[in-house]
Amino acid sequence: MDVEVLRREGVDEKGIETLILDRPETINSLNGTMVSELAIVLREISEDSSVRVLRIKGQGRGFMAGGDLRWFAGMFEAEPDPQRRQEVVLEEIRKVHESIQLIDAMEFPVVAQVHGACAGFGLSLATACDLVMCASDCKVTLAYSGIGTSPDGGSTFQLLRRVGRQRAMQLALLNERINGETAVDWGLFSRAVPTEELEAATRQWCEQLADGPAKALARTRRLLRSPQYDLAEALEAEARSFSECAGGHEFPEGVRAFLEKRRPDYRASMGEN
Who's near 83: CB < 8 A, 6+ residues apart? Predict the structure, then answer.
């Protein structure tokens, strides 16, 4: 499906879908159209049984420069009453949060490919993904405090989990800008490569994931994304997931392939438990 501000490349022969943020004239900044379409397109992708991996990337000079401030200014001008303005913005933020929840609920890995600017909701979107491959010279900033607001898109949740309280405070309160290498050093992103290698490196990851055991990866993803719980709950969740893998086709295939000294063929088990 092609839309005005987003573009699906289509699922390739490996099962990799690529979603392109496509407002390059604004460094893919988020406006009302993108808010609405992002949830629609992500829902379509989540329901596409041929998808094994989703890659999200930005067209043009960067991944995403955050919210389109002209869009916000238009809302503020149209709603001079503070209470009504608050209600309108709350409605829009809840719409965009649906996209974050859809990513969280995906049954396959989601990889962000980040170059150029990654700011505001762009950082929220990137860190909502399972893995982030970035250009070593990309520019990363939370940006919200710089325009007099607090973060959205689950970024406060992700920052605490990824970089800890002190570095989260640096990014959120001081509005610090870091590059891709620092983002990886801090644990915010997964891997940094030179810009000219970014496409190939991300593609390699996506192919590795697409060739992997889809159901096992989905269950592993779900375990790692579970809310904080105590050790007993974590152990029980792991036990259930491990046994579910044993009841399907991928785990037995993985064991057989190891013993037979060959590469496992997990694609034969697509559609199975």
Answer: none
